[in-house]
Specification:
The protein is built from 19 helices and 22 strands. The protein is α/β, with parallel strands linked by helices. Helix 13 packs parallel to helix 14 and helix 18 packs across helix 19.
């Protein structure tokens, strides 16, 4: 018997560290880890010890005899990975690099973390486990913590959200203080933090949308996938948005995992969504949707698709809608194992008869040229592309003379993300990230490190990697921070400013969040859902303060 990693793998890599025979790959010390779609268990090496089952934060690891019909494809996927040339073979485990310990006879280390999503939470976890005398303040601009895990993960992926079970334990440590409803750049400044803390870690993510840059992009009925996902996930900044589903076809531009998430929500049966933690206001609107077809458009070919193989397999296994793939070109090829795997799956899906109900259709080698309409979206013009090998070896999509016009009243843009600048912190507008070397924030004028300033997650490296990738990123940053601490290279902190003290005093914190969490879970139990989210700040404030629900 062996174990199999399934769709909900978050690349957290906790399983790699506990495996006694090193059968889980790629690991954080291996070259393919940063770009890995998921991890895999070598069936020829696994000894069925079960250590990985207990440590997996999202319940993604299953004994092969317990696989459901939906997850059976992952048995083949795990085995196939180890038959590829890219798979590492068994090698003795290298000991993890030890973090620097407490230098001794120094004042307590004070660290601020800006952002409470996965990147910030993993950084807090490593800081608290580092063996130093430390206090950590985690600043979050929203009334609730955990960022992307709460507001970005699709509601029909409950196992992925289980990673918050790790995060929820962090505030129980008396060395960590959760400071909610406090925004850096609005309530306090970067200089307020650098003057009061030895080090500041920015983990603010990259949730601004990149634009298409085509005519009609700002017509009514054209939206970003991020605002749509935030709306149905109950983000308080987007709860007031309205979306009109009085159209039979939705077109999603881009084919990354977020694009597939929004497409899947639009195509799913409403009764299936009622069993999730999707926001109630979204359920009400989606229940009256006229949408019958969701078309996902990719600029390059199927082998270069931005979505991951687990997400594709999830679509193929869904019984809520028919997945339609146009016949693939006979000359379609892949340059790596992941691309070849996607190509193989898509070739098997191509031309399959629809199952009935709504349709989710995947189109490749097309780019949007114009969103058409007078006052609102009525159609979209797509240009067909041919694929060419660029000078750097990458596959480039070049427009051909052929084009399609699809009638639609609803377009979602999902073509990439960028971080947002924070006043007082250097920012690279081109990359949409903070300039840094190894996570140490740098001065653009000198390229030298700015003492005590660090970045982790997407605001460091741009929008790449999975949620679990932030764990290895956070470890690297915390290691760099502790090295600088030992070398005396952090901030020379002084007393906290009045503005900082006042902001912390009036902010909500752990008790506020725990009251909201209890309320949401209790409301969910009444209707057999994981939780019923509060989405308005006023409601959050009342429940957090212990007042009765409105």
């Amino acid at each position: 018997m062996t174990h199999v990693i399934t769709q909900s793998c978050c690349n957290d890599a906790s399983c790699v560290n506990v495996c006694p025979v090193n059968c889980i790959h790629p690991g954080p010390s291996e070259s393919g880890f940063a770009a890995a779609e998921m991890l895999f268990i070598d069936p020829g090496v696994c000894i069925d010890c079960g250590a990985c089952l207990d440590i997996c934060p999202v319940g993604a690891i299953v004994a092969d005899y317990s696989l459901t019909e939906k997850d059976e494809a992952f048995r083949e996927l795990n085995a196939r990975f180890f038959q590829s040339a890219e798979a590492p073979r068994y090698i003795p485990r290298r000991a993890d690099r030890q973090m620097p310990g407490d230098p001794g006879r120094r004042e307590k280390l004070l660290v601020a973390i800006v952002g409470s999503g996965p990147a910030g939470a993993f950084a807090a976890e490593y800081l608290l486990d580092a063996g130093v005398d430390i206090a950590v303040d985690m600043f979050e601009r929203l009334p609730v913590p955990w960022g992307l895990t709460r507001f970005g993960v699709a509601p029909d992926h409950p196992k992925t959200k289980q990673i918050t079970d790790i995060f929820e334990r962090l505030p129980d440590d008396p060395r960590l203080r959760l400071v909610l409803e406090t925004e850096v750049g609005r309530d306090i400044s970067v200089s307020d933090l650098t003057s009061a803390y030895d080090a500041v870690i920015f983990a603010t993510g990259a949730l601004s949308d990149r634009r298409l840059g085509i005519p009609g992009e700002d017509l009514a009925g054209s939206y970003s996938a991020t605002e749509f996902a935030s709306w149905y996930n109950g983000h308080p900044d987007f709860a007031h948005r309205s979306f009109d589903f009085d159209t039979e076809r939705v077109v999603v531009i881009g084919n990354g995992n977020v694009a597939l998430d929004v497409a899947r929500v639009l195509a799913s049966d409403i009764d299936a969504l009622r069993r999730t933690d999707i926001a109630d206001h979204a359920l009400d609107v989606l229940a009256s949707s006229r949408v019958q077809e969701v078309v996902v458009v990719g600029r390059r070919g199927p082998a270069e698709a931005a979505f991951t193989t687990p997400e594709l397999l999830g679509l193929a296994a869904s019984r809520d809608f028919s997945l339609q793939v146009e016949p693939l070109s006979d000359g379609a090829t892949a340059r790596n194992w992941a691309g070849a795997t996607k190509l193989d799956i898509l070739q098997k899906l191509a031309g399959k008869a629809p199952k009935g109900g709504r349709t989710l259709r995947l189109l490749f080698q097309r780019s949007p040229a114009e969103i058409c309409g007078e006052d609102r979206v009525s159609a979209i013009r797509l240009v067909h592309n041919r694929l060419e090998c660029g000078p750097d070896g990458r596959i480039v999509a070049t427009a051909s003379g052929q084009q399609d016009i699809l009638d639609t009243g609803f377009v979602l843009r999902s073509v990439g993300y960028a971080g947002a600048a924070i006043s007082g912190l250097p920012f690279d507008e081109r990359r949409g990230a903070v300039p840094n070397v190894g996570g140490r924030v740098t001065d653009p004028a000198t390229n030298g490190a700015l003492p005590g300033l660090f970045v982790t997650g997407w605001i460091r490296r741009g929008p790449s990697g999975s949620m679990g990738s932030n764990r290895s990123c956070a470890r690297e940053i915390v290691t760099a921070l502790l090295e600088d601490h030992l070398a005396g290279k952090l901030n020379q902190r002084g007393p906290a400013s009045d503005r900082l003290r006042q902001a912390i005093a009036r902010s909500s914190g752990l008790a506020h969040w725990r009251a909201i969490d209890r309320h949401e879970r209790a409301e969910g139990q009444l209707v057999r859902r994981p939780r019923v989210k509060l989405v308005h700040r006023g409601d959050m404030a009342r429940i957090g303060a212990g007042e009765p629900a409105p």
